[in-house]
Design goal:
By secondary structure, the chain is of the alpha/beta class. The protein has helices spanning about 50, 75-85, 100-105, 125-130, 140-145, 150-155, 170-180, 195-205, 205-215, 220-235, 235-240, 245-255, 260-270, 285-290, 295-300, and strands at about 5-10, 15-20, 25-30, 60-65, 90-95, 115-120, 160-165, 185-190. The N and C termini lie far apart (about 50 Å). Helix 11 (about 235-240) packs antiparallel against helix 12. The protein is globular, with a radius of gyration of 20 Å.
Length: about 300
């Protein structure tokens, strides 16, 4: 059994501390949106726990058991968490993706986080704001969460440091633009990753590798991001929508092993007839060598043979 300290728990939120050493950095990870939360309510989705427990980090999971963008978090929950964080001597980071990415930003100031690391976050789900940027996602949730509270739009995070990972070619780019205007975050544009910037980043670089470089090896953040950018523009995910000849060369070199994001991008280009006819010869090899990926995507891909 894993040992942890239950920092806070009510009907909707649970905060757990997996403590290693008070001198280590402490990561507060917020869980993301989950389709099953509409019917099943539990606190099992601890975001990134398996990765961070293998590093010299104290890991804190902040889990919501519904898709509420952490709008109901009480002062008691934050106070209880801050009592724990004051015991720690290392730097405090917040971390999350999508709904959790919003929370990682929204609560960073309240938790005195040195850095917030946010993947594909929203600036707000306020219905007027979402309408202004023409974002039609999560309309049911956003109507239930009025008035939506966002520290980002309030302007309370102007000095918040960290990194926002996003795809500027996706609707997430509009949220990122607002967030960058209202914080001191550094952008990491993973163009063509869609809403899956965390998956893309893990595929080409790795979140464990990133935090090891940043916190253990003390590599400057800008140097890490230059390396990430270089690796990304050479990746199958990026090339699949950007450079067909290089993509084909790298596809063969990889023995046709690809990520789910790459398959999604291939499907987009096939639907838009942007690949030459001979590409269809590669499809059976891609399907055969990626059976562990989403079956529905592979079925869609085979339909182009």
């Amino acid at each position: 059994m894993e040992e942890y300290e239950e920092v806070f728990k009510d009907n909707n939120y649970c905060i757990k501390l997996y403590n290693k050493n008070i001198n280590f950095p402490t990561l507060v990870a917020f869980s993301n949106r989950e389709e099953s939360y509409s019917t099943v309510r539990n606190f099992n989705r601890e975001f990134g726990k398996n990765a961070f427990q293998k590093l010299d980090f104290n890991y804190i999971s902040f889990v919501s058991n519904k898709n509420d963008w952490y709008q109901g978090v009480s002062r008691l929950a934050i106070t209880s968490l801050n009592v724990v964080l004051k015991r720690m001597k290392g730097l405090v980071f917040t971390y999350g993706s999508s709904m959790g990415g919003f929370a990682a930003l929204n609560f960073a100031n309240h938790l005195n986080a040195s850095y917030a690391f946010s993947f594909s976050p929203q600036a707000s789900l306020d219905t007027c704001f979402m309408s202004q940027i023409n974002d039609k996602r999560w309309q049911v949730e956003s109507k239930l969460l009025l008035p939506f509270k966002s520290e980002i739009l309030k302007g309370d995070l102007q000095n918040q440091a960290g990194i926002i990972f996003f795809d500027s070619d996706h609707i997430d780019g509009k949220h990122a633009k607002v967030i960058l205007e209202n914080t001191s975050l550094i952008p990491c544009d993973l163009k063509y990753s869609g809403h899956g910037s965390i998956s893309a980043f893990n595929t080409i670089y790795g979140i464990k590798h990133f935090f090891n470089k940043l916190c253990i090896e003390h590599v400057p953040m800008d140097c890490i991001l230059k390396e990430v950018d270089r690796v990304w523009v050479e990746s199958l995910e990026y090339l699949s929508l950007n450079d067909y000849e290089k993509f084909q060369y790298k596809l063969i070199a990889s023995d046709y092993k690809v990520s789910q994001i790459t398959i999604r991008n291939i499907l987009a280009n096939l639907n838009n007839r942007k690949y030459p006819v001979e590409f269809k010869e590669s499809i059976p090899k891609i399907v055969e060598n990626n059976k562990a990926l989403n079956e529905a995507l592979l079925v869609k891909l085979m339909q182009f043979c």
